[in-house]
Amino acid sequence: MLYNYYFDICAMCILATIAITSLFRRKVPAYRQRAYSMLLMAIIIATVAQRVETLLQMNPIDAVWYPVAEKIAGSIYFIAHLGSAVGYLFYVMAILDIYADLRKFKNFMSVAFGYCIGIVLVVVNWFYPVLFHYDEKGIYNRDSLIIIYYLLAGYYIGYGLLLIFRYNTLMKLKTKIVVASYVLFAFVGLVLQFFLPNFLVENFCVSLSATLVFITLQNPSEMVDEYLNILNKKAFLEGLDLNIKRKSTHSTIFVTIENIRALTSEIGYTQSQKVLKIIARYLKRVGFREFRLQTYVYRYSEYLFAITVHSADEQKARLLLDRIAKRIHEPWESSGMQIRIEGHVFLMRYPQNYSTSPELMTKIDILTDDLSRYKDVIIDTDNFEYNEIKKARDIDFTVRTNLDNKTAVVKFQPILSKIYKINYNVDAICFFADENGEEIDVRGKIPDVKTTQALMDTDEYVFRKACRALSFWNDGDKNGKYRAVVGLSQGEISKTDFIRRIKRILREEKAEASWISVKLSETTVTTMNKVAERNIRMLGEMNCSIIIDAFGSGYGDLNRILSLPIMQVNVDKSVRKSAMESEQMKIVAQGIVNLFHDVSIFVGATNIDSEKDKKMAEELGCDFLVGDYMGPPVPDSSFVRTIDAYFDEG
Length: 650
Known about the structure:
Elements: H1 6-24, H2 31-58, H3 65-95, H4 105-127, E1 132-134, E2 140-142, H5 146-166, H6 173-195, H7 202-216, H8 220-223, E3 224-225, E4 230-232, H9 233-245, E5 250-257, H10 260-267, H11 269-291, E6 295-301, E7 304-309, H12 314-328, E8 332-334, E9 337-339, E10 343-350, H13 357-367, E11 378-379, H14 386-405, E12 409-414, E13 416-417, E14 425-433, E15 439-440, H15 453-474, E16 483-487, H16 490-493, H17 498-509, E17 516-521, H18 522-527, H19 530-541, E18 545-551, H20 558-562, E19 566-571, H21 573-581, H22 583-598, E20 602-605, H23 611-620, E21 624-625, H24 636-649
Parallel strand pairs: 4-6, 10-11, 14-16, 16-17, 17-18, 18-19, 19-20, 20-21
Antiparallel strand pairs: 1-2, 3-4, 5-7, 5-10, 6-7, 8-9, 12-14, 13-21, 14-15
């Protein structure tokens, strides 16, 4: 029988070119690349099998092996040809990052069952011709059930098209056109070869479409870390966005390697990178080897790996997390050395732990910002204080924006004494504007110990504004009656040039150090370093008063507090609240106040917000009262008018 096999030869040349080109491209450990490899391999096998089959038909030989060889080639062609349809479906699923676990009945029935039927039909065809047979001259003939093969192939192609239309918005236009064109080329080839059996064009059309897919595959360098040969952050975020948009439940395990810099200084850069490569190789294999889980490893950042788990089984994901956590702290052998790694692991689940990609990135950033605070290797992402840390970061961003835009406003809150009820002392407080231009109050929202550069810049800004206001109010009188209290963070007073900058501000604003009282929290004073302690003592030598704020709210060391030049201690609101709830606690609170009075230290009560709170502060014997109930913060000019009116009008 004569066949027009010109197009088959062209198809083989095209496929050979793609295969050879692929050998020179970096092997990408990506789902899409693997799916395409499966599709390409099925097309190559089908094309070669058909070419062998046509050669045998065109050159019949009277030999025992001839009909067997012909039937083998035909059977391989049928199985591989249907496999190309399955490969097409897998490629579409890979584009959308949809993983089908064939061990689950539903996935098996929707993806693999049809292919199994095709294989069974081919096996049956060896004993009884249901798909095709060859006559005594070796000529190919179709049989009655061959329509089932066309229906199965149509099912897989239709399933792929359905996914394309269902998730139309998640695919790029170029990708949609190329993937859809595969169907068009395959259909054209199928129709032509069905009506013109001698015209072998089907494999040629499929090869053309496979070539288009190959051309549109992403450049491996864009999605792979070339040294470790694992996917990079860009590839991770692309897959993450697809899963979130499809609202697909998934889990990701993150692994931090924290002592690589230290290892680099000890064993050298090359050796430390070799250790990272060993760890990356382990992470790529552990999921499938230990739990038969399909996983992909990404280098999220320099020393942070992300492992996506393609399974809805959260229990298995947690078992994998535990296994990695156990292994990560065991020695890693590299170049005859036993290397120990310091790291943490944590699990992030969608939608339990995040709902958007930016939220996940923010949480990862917060979690890995200070890993030293986590004692356990496994970080419990369900219980860590994300909202509080996020608020602190938002405040820091707002503070920095206001300082840069010069929109921060310093106000002054009157401090009342139990003798004069109102005096010339004020508490300097900085207010900021949000994105809508509305004023926000950050009192009580700034951490005691860990401060950022923006918050330290705010300390200096408030100090300067307070000095400027005092210089105006006191009008050059070194013994002026107006005084201001300025709160400072631990980060600010721990700077080695702190005193030099304070003196410069006082000199530039023409203010006296005795006009200023520096307010420090109890935790700040207790946990400060030697530099900060030296700075506090030098402030005392400059006649600058020191106030301990929020006493009773944090970790306190009374001996250390009393060893410093302290002028006043502010009892925290929580102490007064306890005193109002219990007579016994009231006695304790009075004892605290009397203790400081006995050593000639004034006692203040801050954050008073009600009449009941005010009365309790007075009963305890507090010397100074301050809070919004006693008088809200006001601009500098309003404060002077308030004081003048109070004394002028009585």
